[in-house]
Amino acid sequence: MGKKVKVRFAPSPTGDLHVGNIRTALFDWAYARHTGGTFLFRIEDTDTTRVTDEYIQAAIDTLKWLGLNWDEGPEVGGENGPYLQSQRLDIYAEWAQKFLDQKDAYHCYCTPAELEATREAQRAANVAPGYDGKCRDLSAEQIAAYKSEGREAVVRMRMPDGSTTFVDEIRGEVVFDHKFVPDFVLVRADGSPLYTLAVAVDDVLMKVTHVLRGEDLLSSTPRQIRVYQAMGVKPEDYPVFAHLPFVMGQDNAKLSKRNGEVSIAWYREQGYLPEAICNYLALLGWSPGDDRENITMKELCELFTVEKVHSSPARFDMKKLEAINGDKIRALTLDEFLNWSLPFLIKAGVITGTDSEIALVKAALPIIQERIVKLDEIPQMLKFLFVKDFGVEAESVSKITDSLSKDILKRSVKELEPLSAWNHDSIEAALRASLIEEMGLKPRIAFTAIRIATTGSTISPPLFESMELLGKEASLARIAAALTL
Ligand code: GLU
After folding, report:
1. Domain spanning 6-77+247-318: which CATH class is it, in words?
2. Where would you find the membrane-spanning parts of this chain (predicted)?
3. What is the pLDDT of residue 258?
4. Ligand 1 pocket residue status of 44, Cβ below 6 Å
5. Helices then strands, each counted (H, E), the chain
6. DSSP-derived 3-state class of residue 184
7. Is residue 475 over pLDDT 80?
8. Is 275 in the pocket of ligand 1 (CB under 6 A)?
9. 426 sits in which H/E element
10. How far apart are the CA of 316 and the centre of ligand 1, in A?
11. Rounded Cα distance, 107 and 146, in Å
């Protein structure tokens, strides 16, 4: 029987989590759920100059918001904690000491200037850059001399000659010649551990079975395997590696602000739903085996296998994400849609959140659910219903002050005033009969004037439904006011 799967997501939150991080988290999560395994969440915060408490909290909140619940990690705990690397420094120090004792690692006293001079010489000689092994076998006298100069040592791992071979679940066999993997630093002079030490020690101690992560970390794999060896882990117990293809921007360049916004916080503010982000990111480098584009989280868990991850880079396509977001918005129940909408309306200052406002929002949402792509469009769409000092937006005023528009508005008041039943059918019937049939106007011309007069803008939800929601009194008052412009 195979080992129970344990997958980890281990970001270093040096900023808000971005699209690439979340795609990794999503695949990790989906793989754990697909296999009935454990999803472990670990914060790699040993670089205290770049990781902040705010970013750590934001990473936790983002995962929660996306619904990527974890079984072990911050807040939920677990038997392999703590899950913040900054709380595990003693553990890394002990292992580094053990590696020194075993002679797998050594103290290196080279100064930054000496290291730079070595690199310079290597560049000049056209050989692969990297540590040249100068401090590998220092004598006791040399060490004493360096110490008396006040030099501080880093701890370096000794890379033996030869190569490291491992099978990547996505790329197949990968070989790293150690000529290109020089001895590497495990612990800085100030005693703080480097990523390579902490990540490898934690993956072993936390019993991680699968490392699914971004392709940018492929080259650190031979170093991590070296740490496993020094820890005495048997090859059959190494985690399985699977390096996910890069996510490129829309123009095939690296993903950046310019070609596909990167921070998940931004998507959240724009009104993308977590299910839409997850659905879209799931398709970035993976496919369910057919060409469907609408996938629920449940289906993703059922279908996700590493074999179906592509090895070529995926390209970010904002239009596709928007289309998926629109689909997910349309699929919401009215109550769900209401819950998503209210914070956007309150934040934009359109409503304060009273019961009567919420009731009106709820009545209005069905007429915009088919039309919006992102939740941040809602305030603009519905503000005409709530605004206290209504006025036509400046750029539309000139569109309703010509004589034809005045005729249209006058005629509509005349037709609408006597209506006893005020609903979108009766409003539409009255306006069509008079403006289109009798006056012979094109609907676009006739209804644009009324739209501007009643909603203040050329862009609004469907006109007759909007007027029904606004009510007879307010609709007529607004048309009357427009006639005075
Ligand atoms: N902490 C690393 C990073 O955010 C990733 C660690 C890993 O997945 O191995 O870049």
Report:
1. alpha beta
2. none
3. 62
4. yes
5. 20, 11
6. strand
7. yes
8. no
9. helix 424-431
10. 21
11. 11
Cβ–ligand 1 distance for 24 under 6 Å, the answer no
Annotated active-site residue in 257, 347, 410, 442 = 257
Phi first, then psi, for residue 243 (nearest 5°) are: -100, 120
**Predicted confidence band of residue 260 (pLDDT cuts 50, 70, 90):** low
Which of 28, 217, 219 to mutate to test ligand 1, by most ligand atoms within 8 A of the CB atom?
A: 217
Q: How far apart, in Å, are the Cα atoms of 331 and each of 189, 252, 342?
A: 56, 32, 18
Domain ranges of the chain: 6-77+247-318, 88-244, 332-378, 394-482
- For 129-185, write each residue's pLDDT tens digit: 899 999 999 999 999 999 999 999 999 999 999 999 999 999 999 999 999 999 999
- Report whether CATH 1.10.3720.10 matches the domain 88-244: no
In this structure, what token pair is assigned to residue 458?
A: 């050329």
pLDDT at 261 over 70: no
Is 257 in the active site?
yes
CATH of 394-482, one of 2.102.10.10, 3.40.50.1100, 3.30.390.50, 1.10.10.350: 1.10.10.350
User: Angle at Cα 162 formed by Cα 218 and Cα 204, nearest 5°?
Assistant: 50
Residues 467 and 475 sit within 8 Å (Cβ to Cβ): yes
* C-alpha triplet 13, 15, 17: angle, nearest 5°: 70
Name residues whose C-beta falls within 8 Å of residue 316's C-beta, 6 or more positions apart in sequence: 19, 247, 248, 249, 250, 255, 259, 260, 284
Nearest partner of 368 among 400, 352, 344, judged by Cα: 344
Half-sphere exposure for 187 (CA within 13 Å, toward CB) = 25
Can you tell me whether residue 104 is helix, strand or coil? coil
Which of 44, 56, 197, 262 has most ligand 1 atoms within 8 Å of its beta carbon, as the pocket-test mutant?
44
* 386 token code pair: 């709530």
- Write b or e for each residue in 146-176: b if 16 or more Cβ atoms lie within 10 A of its Cβ, otherwise e: beeeebebbbbbbbeeeebebebbbeeebeb
Q: Is 392 left (phi over 0), alpha (psi -120 to 50) or beta?
A: beta
Domains 6-77+247-318 and 394-482 share a fold: no
CA–centroid distance, 481 to ligand 1, in Å, is: 61
pTM across the whole model = 0.92
